[in-house]
Protein 1
Amino acid sequence: MASIWQYANPRKFIQTTDRVLPWIAGAALVALIVGLVWGFFFTPEDYRQGSTVKIIYLHVPSALMAINGWIMMLAASLIWIVRRHHVSALAARAAAPVGATMTVIALVTGAIWGQPMWGTWWAWDPRLTSFLILFLFYLGYMALWAAIENDDTAADLTSVLCLVGSVFAVLSRYAVNFWNQGLHQGASLSLDKEENVADVFYFPLLLCIAGFVLLFIALVFLRTQTEIRARRMRALLVRERLG
Amino acid sequence: MIALLTRDLRLAVRAGGGFGLGLAFFLIVVTLVPFSVGPENALLSEIAPGILWLGALLACLLSLDRIFALDWEDGSLDLLATSPVPMEALVSIKALAHWLTTGLPLIVATPVFALLLSLPQAGYVPLVLSLFLGTPALSVIGTFGAALTVGIKRGGLLLSLLVLPLYVPTLIFGAEMARRGALGLDMKTAMMMQAGISFGVIALLPFASAAVLRVNLR
């Protein structure tokens, strides 16, 4: 019977992802192109924000993926700790740089958006601050992976760091809320609200979000494959030297 | 466990450096601040609680890699790991020893340093209280970071990178409590949050530290 755990087999993982990767990457490309072109050129300008509102099509999806990337790493770390599937540890490792990049995109687009709207590139607003802290967590996680030579030790240590870091990231999120009041608006998209952003902005935005999600999945698949192959190659080299 | 604690304390006091170094570093930070922001007393007294908290945090950070590094190098950490004392207790004792040799002297010295930064009269008790509540959390979180990086050569910078983001909540609530105290505002919320973080961290984090230490000793 097929179960999700069969993909813990590296060969099976590579086989399957090889088959779906072009489709996911293609879908990401289509969604991003259509969403961005629609968003940039075929939506009206906001009556107060003018054309700067269009940066929302990059800002919101990247911010979403920055957080979801960490959550994905958390899940993969848990799977590694509980079931010790190497693919899972490598997927967590592969996701970190992608998530960090998403965080940077969100911060940079936010700064570019904030300049005309709030009159400042940066403010110590709770949301901005917690994103900066999230970026630091990504940096620490990647640095720890890079610093340890033994793969299994590195996987163990980074997954514990990911778990502890998650708790502290949430703590920090609420701590900065307490520390300073913000400029940033509240959530404009949520599933339980009657009204979100106006529909003209909403649909291209949804498309862009879908594009970013697919892009993230495609990149993580690709990078996980690379990690698996790199590790396999290292093993072969070692065997050659011994033999 | 008591033996381990006294051993660690004795090592910290006698084997040079560790003990006084944190305090000296704290003093230097406090001395350098007026040079960088100017000597006006009004400005200094306004930022004093934050500066003192930051100085204490950095001084604490400075001595973290000593928690396990020396024991790791001469192999006594392996011996400790095979002793009947559970690993969780071991890391808790290590954190306690670190707090006694770093956090406690900092707390005792802070009123003097606060004088240098002309902290308002009302600020002394809240500042000391906030450090008293907050520095144990710094030691325990730092022990986790030290356990993570114990096997890495020249892991000092990495240790800072890993530990500093984890210090954010403690710093926020601690400095906020000290600041509100200095201004004579109500500091109950910050105090309770700070105490909550400290106690939570003391109760839970030793398990994570012990887990990563076991991995590193494998």
Protein 2
Amino acid sequence: MARKKVVTTEPSSPASARPVRKRSAPRRGLEAAEELVETKRRRISTHPKANIGGELQDDLTDEGRGNESPAEEPAPTPTPRKRGRPPKATIATVAGGGPPTPSKSGVNGVVKTPVRTPAKTRALNGVDTPNRRAITDRSARRKSARALIDHVVGDASSDDEGGSEAIARAIYGSSGSEDEDEDGGVGRRGSDDELEGLHSTNATPSKTPRGRKKKATTARKKSPTPPRDLPPHEQYFYQNKPGLAKTSNNNLTSLGLLTHDEYFTLLRESKDQHEEDIQFLQYLHLESFPQWAFELSQGFSICLYGYGSKRQLLHKLATHLYSVTDDHESSKIVVVNGYVRKTTTREILSTIGSAVDSSYKLASGNQVTMLQTLLSLLSSGGVTITLIINSIDAPQLRKAGTQSILAQLAAHPQIRLVCSADTPDVSLLWDSGLRSSFNFLFHDCTTFAPYAAEIDVVDEVHELLGRKARRVGGKDGVAFVLRSLPENAKNLFRLLIGEVLVLMDEESGASGDNPGIEYRMLYNKAVEEFICSSEMAFRTLLKEYVRLRRNPATFTVSSPGFIMPSNMPVDSTTTR
Amino acid sequence: MITSQKDVLGTELLSLPFRKEELEAILEDIMS
């Protein structure tokens, strides 16, 4: 105790003296379980190892109290670690004025006051109860830590001890976590508990990294779910996270297709509500026919654009022009349907040539020479041709060569060109050279008429769905086909239909797919019914139903049977 | 008028691309 006094009276004493004093105190605090002393002890650290070390040192100091030299020598060892902290503590005490016990004691000269004052100040600040709790927790924790160490050292393990060990571990763990919490709280509390802060800093080397790690891991776990405290760029990516792909089940395959008959009955029944308005619009366009005729006579070409089919309008214009002109020998009208897929430049040129001179046959060759001969033919004769082209921007006429040929035709003084354009980007079709030779005048001719001839809806839809085979022309088409077939082929088809119907009845429920009949089975049945006698004959009979295709099908003979092409667009147009 | 598909086992299946009602109508046409 005498040594203690000496230490306390020297506020500016080096840190080497302090730990010794503090360590001597905790030992007694532990033994006597006195709170006031405990508070002092807390200043040092709650780390079990440090305490144990302190105890060992205390023992040593107790033994050699008389002569300081052997006892003091181990004491300086912790000093280098804490060298930087005492000034902090002194500053804190000056600022807070809470626990500056050493100075007060120095002033008062009373020995007991420095022990009690810290407890009082804390009680005044109103943080007494949590501190007491923490103190008791800490003491319990220290005890548990000691028990654990004893257990490890003694290496004695019985069931009872195991139970007590578990409790000790639990206490140690819980108090440890509380310590961490308190460390954070104390730091914020202010300067009054600056010594606590000191204690916490003392404890940092072993504890704080652990706590930080835990916090970091929890933050990482939480981060995917809530977008809190994210930097802006991370927030962006969080908000623009790709979710689950949303695909609709409403696809085209689920559509119930109309049959041939249904389609046409519906088409005939449907009535356009705007028919009158469309008629009126058409009438307005008819009014401008004389104007157009005049423009044509002045060497301009006319291009009609706007939504709706202009086929009817051009047809009426042709009849108008025909009625206006007196001399039908010298002026002729050629109508080209550009939307027809098979339209070729050669065809157009030969048609014009035959219009000029019916007996004239264009020399075969490339298109340029054909054009040259046609132009010379035009120049030689006095025939004026009015060329009317429906859909000049149809895919077949979109080729640059075709357009340049048409432009050269239009540039000829004896050819008057009237055309219609259906696509909005038609003006991109011609460069300045072509435009100058075309010499177009554009007229807005929105008709709102359906593109009945230009677009084949049925075929387009079938093409989209990949079901070319459906276009057979309905049962009428089939009947027409069958009429032209020999009796055996008809019988084979009847047999096939019968079998398919039987299969449909059997399946009844699932009628989504057309049931198929095995090639072999059908052949056997055909043989049974004397439709055919050999497989070769059977094949030729089956071929009858394929020969009606527009494009010849390639047959590949394989072992179980030959593959028949699944797409057989036997059209009503081809059959009729 | 006749389509053919191969099933998983590779057997040739001949089928008609019509609905049942249509097939019945065609069959009636042929029989008459």
